[in-house]
Amino acid sequence: MKPRLIFSFFFSCVFLLSYGQKPKDSVNTKWKYTPNFMVGLDVLNAATAAFSDRKLFQGFVSSQINENIHAVAEGGFEKNIYQKNGYDATANGPFLKLGAFYMLANDKENPFNGFFAGGKIAGSYYSQKYFAVPVRGFSDSEASVAFPSSSQSSYWIEAMIGGRVQLFESPFYIEVNMQPKYLAFSTTQEDLEPMIVPGFGKSSAKFNMGFSWNVAYRF
């Protein structure tokens, strides 16, 4: 699946969904966007970075498009290592995610409080290095080879399911969400599938699960 087709399909769906929303009061009422933003940081993964090999720092910016639909952009940087089944690899680099979510249920007094679900398309351009890749040696003996650092890119689709609540009467919010992910396309080095993709995680499989615990500020 080509990355260009993934991006085109996703944004077409978001556009049609937004266009199809009709105001409750009158079908003739023109939709008008009022600038509004919420900025958040993932404090959970940032805190655990001090105690693990995975160094993940990420944040997001979201904006309410209409009553229930919010656009969201997320970005960050990840550095991680993979040491399993004879593989020894490292990868690091930035990533970017773009998407939207729909408020499934919210507070009547504050429409930003509630539960939501949505989806994002994501990509990462990163550097990877293999210190050891297992291969069969002479007489089926175990051996390994190394590969130099190279630049790679990967693209994936992820869903997002979570909730958000305001902290008392302040402009701060707590947001928790899960992100089931599917790796759609990756460039390869010597036909080796990437062991780590920044923003996606360890990718020895096409599917992965992410989790974030964010503190956000609404402007």
- Range of helix content: 10-25%
**Spans where pLDDT lies below 50 across 5 or more residues:** 13-26
Order of helices and strands: HEHEEEEEEEEE
Class from secondary-structure proportions: mainly beta
**Total number of beta strands:** 10
| CATH fold label | Porin
Let me know the largest β-sheet.
8 strands, antiparallel, barrel
* End-to-end gap: 38 Å
CATH architecture: Beta Barrel
The tally of domains stands at 1
Enumerate how many helices there are, as a single number.
2
CATH class bucket: Mainly Beta
Mean pLDDT: 87
Q: Tell me the Rg in angstroms.
A: 20 Å
Overview in brief:
Helix content is 11%, strand content 59%.
Reconstruct the topology from this structure.
Elements: H1 3-19, E1 38-42, H2 43-48, E2 55-64, E3 69-84, E4 87-106, E5 114-136, E6 142-166, E7 172-186, E8 196-197, E9 201-202, E10 207-218
Key traits:
10 strands, 219 residues, mainly beta, 2 helices, elongated, eight-stranded antiparallel β-barrel, Porin
Descriptive notes:
The protein is mostly beta strands. The protein has a single domain, classed as Porin (Beta Barrel), CATH 2.40.160. 11% of the residues lie in helices and 59% in strands. The protein has 2 helices and 10 strands; from the N terminus they run αβαβββββββββ. The protein has helices at residues 3-19, 43-48; strands spanning 38-42, 55-64, 69-84, 87-106, 114-136, 142-166, 172-186, 196-197, 201-202, 207-218. The strands form 2 sheets. It has an 8-stranded antiparallel β-barrel. The protein has a two-stranded antiparallel sheet with strand order 8-9. β2 (55-64) and β3 (69-84) form a beta hairpin. It is elongated and about 70 Å long. The two termini are 38 Å apart. 26% of the residues are buried.
